[in-house]
Write a structure and sequence with these properties.
heterodimer; A: 451 residues; alpha+beta; Amidase signature (AS) enzymes; 3 domains; 11-stranded mixed beta sheet; two-stranded antiparallel ribbon; 14 helices; 17 strands; 37% helix; globular; B: 181 residues; mainly alpha; Double Clp-N motif; 58% helix; 0% strand; elongated
């Protein structure tokens, strides 16, 4: 059930906030076999629900999120509640304050029911967490939920909650959204505060929502976005209403379809679903523009250099390999071997891509691509076949999403059909910096068209 | 007992137990440890075997010299044989001798070589896998990090070398706006 429907039931008094939280907690306890959560926070959730009920009875309505149960990736600081980052290093860490977004969502009335499982320290896309359990895909538990926000995605895809918070440094919101068949948005760099969120790579980290539909994400973003004096990367830019009604006419919309890269190594079923979605938008008036885009292979390489170095810098004091999973340790070792000039040049290459994309936005409004070239692989699948070619699962899953962290553009992933294995296919809509409102409106329109 | 083991080394024990139960042994022997290691660390095994001999060859030889019995349930707790226990003790000794804090797959392999009567040691020495060979291979083998970075640099380095001198890096640094006086 989405936020709008739950909100209607709460306001009709069909159900109280306490009853909704009670039901959600009971549902998770009986049905969650996906290792979605690291910590369930029953008491604080029920206490908040009681307050929200009293407020509603007195006529105080905090808005669309009032009383709505949500999940928080266990990367967000929560005052008095342990925040593990999915790591042994922080397994007993109890923050003394809330992340800005946690505070803002609570002020908007949302009620967190717990801390969601994730790929260890958010560095990976499988969410096969060696310390807190492998997250499983609710659409098929033998498959990956994706990551690193895997638990958040599983909570939404498993129909436990309409909304969960995630973070995205190289695809960590969009990949699990794609694999689990839900919607997620990585907003523009600087749009949402990162204060009180465990960093993975300072210049690539983004915070965003994963929701059961586009509107859930838009409503969450309305509550989360905006300048924060406690976050130096926070953009001093006004926040519009992100929850616009679906468009009935898309005339004037220039929809870019990339000529290269995004469809080059992509499974045929994903390509045909995404191109099919483009035709639906065209039928509503959008102009499809076959467009030359900057070299994404290069952007990905530079993004990896920057990410490896920044993450290694954060974890430089943690030298005990037994505290980390093998995959994460290998990446930390790679990061320590990046040279100073390489990191600096990675940041300079970023400036070049920034200019290239600024030029691109003069020709189109939105770029439409697949989110992942494949549907969710099996849990133990280290490689995937795309056509005749075998590719490392992690590289394949992040290939089409990583560059957007590097240049900072907002990007939505939403479901668009299913593959032969009955697993969801994910589509990515990319917009110009700070154009989230229009991006989400087009996504909502497409959601309506796809049914 | 396994606190000092790396994750890979721990998984060798896990796979050894699995191999023992699959092969119908009610005890974990040296050869099960080797089969476990061959499952977990393919790179290490490949680096110590002479060219022309594959991991599959070694696997076949070991399995060929074993008596197969009825499978055991993996839920039955299997003990380590005395030999296997000695191999683990040697592995820990090897880590200390090399001043390495953690017990890794390399140390387990060195431990196996020090129990010469076992099927594991015999299979290894048949292919001239010696203590020296293992140490040499572990020194020569480029680290997995170096391999990944070599590949990454093939795309990255040419791009970096073409940057214009005046291209400034994108950074997260910004100064606060001056407030009212």
């Amino acid at each position: 059930m989405n936020i709008r429907e739950l909100g209607r039931q709460l306001r009709n008094r069909k159900i109280s906030c306490v009853e909704l939280i009670d039901q959600t907690l009971a549902d998770i306890k009986t049905r969650d076999r996906f290792h979605s959560l690291i910590t369930l926070t029953e008491e604080p959730a029920l206490a908040e629900a009681r307050e929200r009920d009293i407020e509603l009875a007195k006529g105080r309505d905090r808005g669309p999120l009032h009383g709505i149960p949500i999940g928080l990736k266990d990367l967000f600081y929560t005052r008095g509640i342990r925040t593990t980052a999915g790591s042994l290093v922080y397994k007993d860490f109890i923050p003394e304050y809330d992340a800005t977004v946690v505070e803002r969502l609570r002020n908007a009335g949302a009620i967190s029911i717990g801390k969601a499982n994730l790929h260890e320290i958010a560095f990976g896309i499988t969410s096969k967490n060696p310390h807190f359990g492998f997250v499983r895909n609710p659409r098929d538990p033998s498959r990956l939920a994706g990551g690193s926000s895997g638990g958040s995605a599983a909570l939404v895809a498993g129909n436990f909650l309409p909304l969960a918070l995630g973070t995205d440094t190289g695809g960590s919101i969009r990949v699990p959204a794609s694999f689990c068949g839900i919607t997620g948005i990585k907003p523009t760099y600087g749009r949402v505060s990162r204060y009180g969120v465990f960093p993975l790579a300072f210049s690539l980290d983004h915070v965003g929502p994963l929701g059961s539909c586009v509107e859930d994400c838009a409503l969450a973003l309305n509550a989360m976005a905006g300048p924060d004096p406690r976050d130096a990367s926070s953009a001093q830019i006004p926040v519009p209403d992100f929850n616009l009604p679906a468009a009935t006419d898309l005339s004037g919309l220039r929809l870019g379809i990339p000529r290269k890269f995004f469809f080059d190594r992509c499974s045929p079923e994903v390509e045909s679903a995404v191109r099919g979605a483009a035709s639906r938008l065209q039928a509503l008036g959008a102009a499809l523009i076959d467009i030359e885009i900057p070299d994404m292979t290069k952007a990905n390489a530079a993004a990896r250099v920057v990410q490896l170095a920044e993450t290694a810098a954060i974890y430089v004091n943690h030298r005990d390999s037994t505290k980390f999973g093998d995959d994460v340790w290998a990446l930390l070792e790679q990061g320590r071997a990046i040279l100073g000039h390489e990191y600096v040049n990675g940041q300079r290459i970023r400036a070049v891509f920034r200019r290239d994309f600024d030029a691109l936005w003069k020709q189109i409004d939105i770029l439409l691509t697949p989110t992942t070239p494949i549907t969710a692989p099996l849990l133990d699948q280290d490689t995937v076949m795309i056509g005749e070619r075998e590719e490392n699962t992690r590289m394949a899953a992040t290939r089409l999403v990583r560059a957007m962290n590097f240049i900072g553009e907002p990007a939505v992933s939403m479901p668009c059909g299913k593959g032969a294995n009955d697993m969801p296919i994910g589509l990515q809509l990319i917009g110009a910096p700070f154009a989230e409102a229009r991006l989400l409106q087009v996504a909502k329109t497409l959601e309506g068209l796809l049914g | 007992m396994f606190e000092r083991y790396t994750e890979k080394a721990r998984r060798v024990i896990f796979f050894a137990r699995y191999e023992a139960s699959e092969l119908g042994s009610n005890i974990i022997e040296g050869e099960h440890l080797l089969l476990g290691l061959m499952r977990e660390d393919k790179g290490l095994i490949a680096s110590v075997l002479p060219s022309g001999v594959t991991r599959d060859d070694l696997d076949r030889e070991i399995r060929g010299s074993l008596v197969h019995a009825e499978k055991f349930s993996t839920s039955v707790d299997l003990p380590l044989s005395h030999q296997a226990k000695r191999i683990l003790a040697y592995a820990s000794e090897e880590a200390e001798r090399l001043s390495e804090k953690h017990i890794s797959t390399k140390h387990l392999l060195l431990g196996m070589l020090r129990e010469p009567q076992t099927i594991a040691a015999q299979a290894l020495s048949k292919h001239n896998v010696s203590r020296e060979r293992v140490l040499e291979a572990s020194l020569l083998a480029p680290s997995s990090a170096a391999k990944v970075l070599d590949e990454l640099r093939q795309t990255f380095a040419p791009m970096a070398s073409r940057l214009a001198p005046e291209t400034e890096p994108v950074t997260v640094f910004s100064l606060p706006m001056p407030g009212p006086k």
